[in-house]
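Support reply, case 0932

Customer input (verbatim):
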Amino acid sequence: MAVLKEAIVRVAAEKSTLKPMLVPPESLLSQTLHGTLVRLQARVIGHVIGATEESLKLQSGPWIADAILEKDQPIEKLGGIDPGSTVELTGVYQARLDDNLNVQSFQLMLRSPDDVRVLSRPSWWTARRVIWSVAALGMAFALVLAWVTLLHKQVNARTRELRAEIEERKRMEIQVATTHKELLVASRGAGMAEVATSVLHNVGNVLNSVNIASSCLADSLRKSKSVNLSKVVTLLDDHAEDLGAFFTSDPKGRQLPGYLAQLATHFAEEQATALKELAGLQNNIEHIKDIVNMQQSFAKASGLMETLQMTDLVEDALKMNASSFIRHDIQVIKEFENIPPVTVEKHKVLQILVNLVRNAKQACDELDPPEKRLTLRLTSGRDCVRVAVTDNGIGILAENLTRIFAHGFTTKKTGHGFGLHSGALAAKEMGGSLTVHSEGNNQGATFTLELPLVRIEELHE
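Our regenerated output:
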């Protein structure tokens, strides 16, 4: 073997022009490669870090070799190259000879970390990780299956409760409808058809909300995805023997956990919506009961003069429209003075007040100001009591002020033109008056009912 003695060494340029020789795996054990710059591909099977050098254990074809990088500090230079990675290395070939001067093995001397280029990295799915993943998925599946079973039972139980509640609501609707008919007959018999119409109108509005809520509940039950739970259980039963492979390899199995999570979220939202609708149903039923009870207390003969507090009648008129105020977000302001009792026909006064309050609410709805206000002022004079109903709604045009109490005149698209007319006649019959004031369009309006403090004899002559 040739040996170089007393040689003169000259440092080459920083970027050497020497090109490495690409060596295939079958030609790696060759004495002619000793001392030459070679390039080869191999698979990393180990990584060793020392104080003065760092090496990669390589396998290229059937041969095992070391790629060595010398360093002056114990700092890792070849970090991030995991076993199983395929790399391309460039370095000086150093042959190891046996006693017969045959190449037994070789090692590669690296010049810098840049001499190692990673071509591919090993798969994350090692045998150990696969086992742990399968075990984790199995536990998760068992928990999900138990939870889904429990949820399915809860959904079925809640569905039965909702159906029972819906049936109860329907029964109550029939009962309320029957009560409406009875109230209408009683109102006609007592001479207070206008009050009954107002009451039934308010009850009808509440019943609309009841019907909508009931329809929403029924529609929600018809569209419920609880039936999909049985499909999931059937799918799991079909793959009971190979759940691990089903969850890892089958596209349906990989999507199943996410689908179950979405299904759980849907059921939670469905339950929250149903509870919200039921709460609204309960509130509406309470409103209906209040209106019905109030109307039943007024079922007395028309023409009966009674001495009572005017504040009580005003409060009753407000209660009959309470649901409309809440639904249309109308603020009610009460300014009541301490006035003596009045002797009036209760049902006629109530008829007038209910109509004025309802008209004021509708005027606010037509203009729809940022803040809807309805103000009721109760004052007294020397021989009369006044109830003023003021709104900040659409107002009344000047040319309509003289016709507002005429029979058949109305500015509403769906109006009949007899509410204010009959109210003005009723006030006159009781010895009082009904007047109106408005500054014009979009300026609101004030209707004032004035009634005598003492009974005037022979009012109907």
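We compared this against your earlier run and they match. Two observations from our side: The longest strand covers residues 37-49. Residues 455-461 have pLDDT under 50 and may be disordered. Please reopen the case if you see a mismatch on your end.
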